[in-house]
Design brief:
single chain; 209 residues; Four Helix Bundle (Hemerythrin (Met), subunit A); 2 domains; two-stranded parallel sheet; 5 helices
Length: 209
């Protein structure tokens, strides 16, 4: 009889422990699910907030770009005239460097009297200094009227032209490394192409009000 009672008690205890364990695990699972749900809700709120902020920023930037492209005719005419001046001096500078390249090629391909070529180089160098001076003056005097990307490219072009001009600072032109000069000249021409593209895009996108 005692054995039966003990067995019965063990069975009851086992059932109680199993039930308690199940309840305990259910409580843990419920708390974990609740925590996960809270985290998901917080995550969703953050995503929604970030999306709203992103949408507002896109709207703001779109409005700014749109306002930038709408200009009065006076401003358009001012910018257009400025771009023409810029491009004239860029053309003069690049043409001058092309002429210098031709004279340097002539010097490198002959052992005859180089007096004529040297004189032509000196004259072209003086022309180049004049063009560069005008170009620098246009950049400095009109700085407030450039948008930043164009201004940066103009400065880069100006600096690159000074690097090329340094090759001619010594009157002994026959010692100039023609390959090195041509390498720097290609970089200058690439900058001029970039300036041409950005000015063209600017003009095409402007809308007169």
């Amino acid at each position: 009889m005692k054995e039966f009672s003990l067995t019965y008690m063990v069975s009851i205890l086992s059932v109680f422990i199993s039930s308690a364990t199940a309840v305990f695990l259910s409580i843990i699972a419920y708390k974990q699910n609740k925590k996960l749900n809270l985290q998901k809700e917080e995550h969703d709120r953050n995503l929604t907030r970030q999306k709203n902020e992103f949408d507002k920023e896109i709207t703001r930037l779109s409005g700014s770009i749109e306002r930038m492209n709408f200009v009065h005719k006076t401003q358009f005419d001012t910018e257009f005239e400025l771009y023409k001046k810029i491009w004239l001096e860029i053309s003069n500078i690049t043409k001058s460097f092309h002429n210098i390249q031709d004279h340097l090629t002539e010097l490198n391909s002959t052992d005859n009297d180089c007096t004529k070529a040297n004189k032509a180089l000196k004259n072209e160098y003086n022309l180049l200094k004049s063009y560069s001076s005008v170009f620098s003056e246009i950049i400095d005097k009109n700085r407030p009227f450039y948008f930043q990307e164009l201004y940066s490219l103009l400065i880069i072009f100006s600096n690159q032209s000074k690097i090329l001009a340094e090759y001619l600072s010594n009157d002994d032109y026959q010692k100039i490394d023609l390959d090195s000069y041509l390498y720097e000249m290609v970089k200058l021409l690439n900058f001029s192409v970039s300036i041409e593209e950005i000015i063209r895009n600017r003009i095409e996108n402007l809308k007169i009000v």
